[in-house]
Amino acid sequence: MKLYYSISEVGSILGVEPHTIRYWEKEFKIRPKKRGRRRVYQQNNIDALLLVKELLYDQKYTISGAKRRFKEIKKTGETVIKNTLVFIRDEIAEVVDILEG
Questions:
Q1: Cα 10 to chain center, whole Å?
Q2: Of 10, 11, 68, 76, whose CB neighbour count within 10 A is largest?
Q3: CATH 1.10.1660.10 holds for 7-100
Q4: What are the tens digits of pLDDT across the range 6-62?
Q5: Longest Cα pair distance anywhere in the chain, in angstroms?
Q6: Which Pfam families match (predicted)?
């Protein structure tokens, strides 16, 4: 595993364009290190960006709602994995209800 990733590598991991990553950095106060004028991302930055993507794309939060939830998660120390598992459990429960109904 690498220590530092470029913005294009992070974009490939997340499946989004670099301008989206820069926007999320600004909105969610995610601060990657800089080497010269280039951003370099560590695993904690990637984890935070994955959380943002999950909130916006998977859980369908608005930007303002995602900001509030992001702060709550950071404050309480919840993890992306825990959130994802809860989301998947809820989705499965909905499918079961539909199938039984």
A1: 12
A2: 10
A3: yes
A4: 999 999 999 999 999 999 999 999 999 999 999 999 999 999 999 999 999 999 999
A5: 59
A6: MerR_1
